[in-house]
Amino acid sequence: MAEENRLRIGPKEGVTYPIQVVYCGNCTMPIEYCEYYPEYDRCKQWLEKNLPREFEKVKIGDNSDTAIGEEEKKRQKRGGKGIIKTKKKEEGPKQVCVSRAPRGKKKSVTVVTGLSTFDIDLKVAAKFFGQRFACGSSVTGDDEIVIQGDVKDDLFDVIPEKWSEIDEDFIEDLGDQKR
Predict the structure, then answer these.
(1) Which helix (H) or strand (E) holds 57?
(2) pLDDT tens string 72-110
(3) Percent of the chain having pLDDT more than 90?
(4) Could you tell me which residue ranges the SUI1 domain spans (predicted)?
(5) Region label for 103, one of left (φ > 0), alpha (ψ between -120 and 50) or beta (otherwise)
(6) More confident call, 42 vs 82
(7) Which residues on neighbouring strands pair with residue 115, listed in sequence order?
(8) Do residues 104 and 179 touch, judged by C-beta distance below 8 A?
(9) Which CATH code of 1.20.1250.20, 3.30.565.10, 3.10.20.310, 3.30.780.10 fits the domain covering 96-176?
(10) What pLDDT, on the 0 to 100 scale, is given for residue 130?
């Protein structure tokens, strides 16, 4: 009996080599693992359209349609290739705030916030400000760009000129701030 349970060396009987693995076009995983993907319904649609034979095999093993009244299957939350969740944009007032903050004794930086409410890419805006004012500029927070130097007064002309959807009325001067 001990000899029957031992692992055999070499190919298994009834298996053809090399093994062909079929990958899903939606989740890019082998089709056996599609059920663990958060968008399993899309995987099923892709299989039904492109690989009807494989779809029938998956459909036979799928018990979610026959189980009425049972709770929905819990999906794996960590690891693997999951759905990339987009951040919810706050539907607050659309306003760009410009302020100046001290940096050291005599130097200062200009802080611009609120550009992301107008769907402006902050990295592109920071690069634009750095080139326009010939200074350093970087994205420091969720919705904050820091420009080296005092360019607060120039921003009231530059921002509406570059982005036409931002009017001068949407730009607010917060004055001098502490960082």
Answers:
(1) helix 52-61
(2) 555 555 655 555 555 555 566 788 889 999 888 888 999
(3) 16
(4) 96-163
(5) beta
(6) 42
(7) none
(8) no
(9) 3.30.780.10
(10) 92
| Tokens read off for 91 | 């539907």
DSSP string of 65-117, one letter each residue = TT--SSPPPPPP-SSSS-PPPPPPPP-----EEEEEEEETTTEEEEEEE-GGG
Average pLDDT over residues 65-73: 46
- Whether residue 131 has pLDDT greater than 90: yes
Which residue carries 């100046």 as its tokens? 100
23 phi, psi to nearest 5 deg:
-105, 145
Q: Which two tokens stand for residue 59?
A: 């459909």
Non-local CB neighbours of 28 within 8 Å, separated by 6+ positions: 81
